[in-house]
Amino acid sequence: MKLKSLRLLFVLTTAFAFSAIAQQQANEITLKPKESKTKISKHIYGHFAEHLGRCIYDGFYIGEENKVIPNTNGVRNDIIAALKNLNIPNLRWPGGCFADTYHWKDGIGPKKDRPSIVNTWWGGVTENNSFGTHDFLNMCELLNTEPYLAGNLATGTVQELSDWVQYVNFNGDSPMSKLRRANGRDTAWKVKFWGVGNEAWGCGGNMKPDYYANEYRKYATFMTDWENSSKVFRIASGANGGDYNWTETLMKNIPRNLIEGIALHHYANVTWSKKGSATQFSEQQYFATMKSALHMEELVIKHSAIMDKYDPDKKIALVVDEWGGWYEVEPGTNPGFLYQQNTIRDAMIAGVTLNVFNNHAERVRMANLAQTVNVLQAVILTEKEKMILTPTYHVLEMYKVHQDATLIPLSINTQEYALGDEKLPALSASASIDKNGVTHITLVNIDAKKTHELKINIQDQAYKTISGRIVNSAKLNDFNSFQNPDLIKPAVFKDAQLKGNQIQVVLPAHSVVVLALK
């Protein structure tokens, strides 16, 4: 009996030992370069600027009369330079909820003659319309980015939206092109991307999906001609998170010749009713936020499956034109201004979300981080003449290598990040090959405490050199402040070893890494 017990103990001990070793070796990625065929649209890396808080006024726009902060026509030069460094492909404006109360003719002509309105959605402040259509579209030219205009469907009219399209896009002789020229702009801007309302299920009118689908059809009809010869890209107001019936109803009821994209909005948070501090959060709150961020994968897969039923050729894009982290505002700031700090947690959100979009680039062809300056998960924060770049900014700067590159499909086995009884995949990844033949792999380890070792196998491809960059910090709660603006910034990453067609990587806790292979 003793001998049998010893044998059983030996077998069990050996099994547990091998199980532990297997668990340690579980992190493995296989890249399949020969299966590469899908382009990762640069428009996945878009941004969002709403008339909300200090995003436009005291953010982008400080006024032409400002002599303290260097600017071009009232737009901060340092913000322009920072965003050009990100290669931002598109910028959405003027909302958001604000879009469905915005009447574009209030924002053209001499600024002294422009009427004021009350921004009822965001803080109840007076909007003087000093930043309007010309100001925004000229700023997009400075940024070398494509404008994405959100049209007013809820409180506007079909004629109003049709006139706006003609005002900014038509070079011939018409009432609207004459008005544009009278306001100082001869040639049209040729705006491609147009939202037809925003969050029609909520602040855009609390509509039911079948009602909105009919309204959309009407508005979209008068934005272009029979054949859409002007090639406008019309984006329908899409679902709130997991409202799959909304997507089903729109796909079923909107003719293919009237729609180019359908939106989706999803924000990562602890809980919607109790979002918690942007900086003073516990590991439990961090875990909940990451669980919410990773939910984006399920949303993209399920909404895409519905779209596939009606659009198997994937001609209609899934446009995630609002995404990011949402927390309570910074103490002492206007609750309606949505100003929050930006920590390593936000770098994790950005990294895993962009990996999801990259890996589903067949259907996800446009997205917009909310928002660019001083609002929600901003890439830039300002304070008078000071400007800082957030951890989110640095992740997008590292990830810009994926813009218009060709997606490399991959399979991933990852250990889990466990907290209490809950578990999440610890690692996230995406990969692409650019026009110069350089392969980039973006990796995220969301584990709050544990370093993860990772093996990357590359099928049928050999490389000679490897280099890397990393964004992380000592603590999850770390952030760049106006007193310490460079606490978090990209650094050289040296813990990746290339051996033939295999890479061994050591990923620190809560880190984002980009590898370049040549």
From TrEMBL:
Main EC class the enzyme belongs to: hydrolase
Enzyme Commission designation: 3.2.1.55
GO biological process terms, semicolon-separated: L-arabinose metabolic process; polysaccharide catabolic process
Record-annotated Alpha-L-arabinofuranosidase C-terminal domain positions: 321-511
Record has Cytoplasm as a keyword: no
Pfam families: Alpha-L-AF_C (PF06964), ASD1_dom (PF22848)
Gene3D superfamilies reported for this sequence: Glycosidases, Golgi alpha-mannosidase II
SMART domains on file: Alpha-L-AF_C
Catalytic activity: Hydrolysis of terminal non-reducing alpha-L-arabinofuranoside residues in alpha-L-arabinosides
GO molecular-function terms, A-Z: alpha-L-arabinofuranosidase activity
Keyword Zinc included in the entry's annotation: no
Alphabetically ordered keywords of this record: Carbohydrate metabolism, Glycosidase, Hydrolase, Signal
Source species, domain of life: Bacteria
Family: Belongs to the glycosyl hydrolase 51 family.
Subunit structure: Homohexamer; trimer of dimers.
Designated name of the protein: non-reducing end alpha-L-arabinofuranosidase
Organism listed in the record: Pedobacter aquae
